[in-house]
Amino acid sequence: MTTRSSWKPSLVALDVDGTMVDPETQSLSEPVRRAVRHVASSGSHLVIATGRSMLGTLPVLDELGVTDGVALCSNGAVRVDVATREAVSVETFDPQPVHTRLSPLLPGSLFAAERVGVGSMVTAPFTPEELHGPQWHTGLAELLGQPVPRFIVNWANRDPAEVWGRLEGVELPGCTFTIDHYDPWVTVVPAGVSKAAALEKLRLELGVSQEGTFAAGDGDNDLQMLEWAHHSVAMGQAPATVRLTAAEVTSPVTENGLVPALERWFFPG
């Protein structure tokens, strides 16, 4: 166990859903909010690193009271300047070959293509809890007609395990994908893009040593981030692969497990 006296992280990367926000209730508890605010006011760099779009991340920043720094959205494809609430870097890919590859493997899926800071084009409506921001129901030609930073495949009314089974060993042209363990979702981003890759670029820009990095997460899209961090924490409800990757496992998000994972360094006293 890392102790308060021996080490303190200079860059703290935190996932949102399943780490700070309870996916079932879509709520962020006061103890977690308070713990994250202590990090933000400590002088260390707080980085929100999430699979959410920019539009889905901004309300979380507001609720946390975070007003500066960087947020990495869409699994690292979109970098947001928290102070200006603007996307300062966006990486994209062509969704057409991805759709061609995945539609026969996951028949009947709903598809969504992100338009940064605007909303999403969808083949059928998603619930507001599933897809943040405005949605435009469009035909496939329009939805697939331009490069995107994030492409969502929702195999609605299926079990996530079915998605894992269908996509085992599958490779997608020009991009990479992760699978949700709460819902039958596939999130596709450009090749080489991940939370870890975006964090490493940011770390070098900020001049933070690799030994000064910390990350907490709970999902498939957090695996590389947890491997990247000098000290990593997996949430207690995370799948075994995630828990085995992290240096430490804390309590589930429903028990505010992030709080003790941060308080040893960032609570006053």
Walk me through what this model shows:
- The strands form 3 sheets. The protein has an 8-stranded mixed β-sheet with strand order 7-6-5-4-1-14-15-16, sandwiched between helices. Strands 10-9-8-11-13-12 form a 6-stranded mixed β-sheet, with helices on one face. Strands 2-3 form a two-stranded antiparallel ribbon.
- The two termini are 20 Å apart.
- By secondary structure, the protein is α/β, with parallel strands linked by helices.
- It has helices at 30-40, 54-64, 96-102, 140-143, 160-167, 195-206, 223-228, 240-245, 258-266; strands at residues 11-14, 21-22, 27-28, 45-49, 70-73, 78-81, 86-90, 110-115, 119-122, 135-137, 151-154, 175-179, 185-190, 213-217, 231-234, 248-249.
- Helix 1 (30-40) runs parallel beside helix 9 (258-266).
- It contains 9 helices and 16 strands.
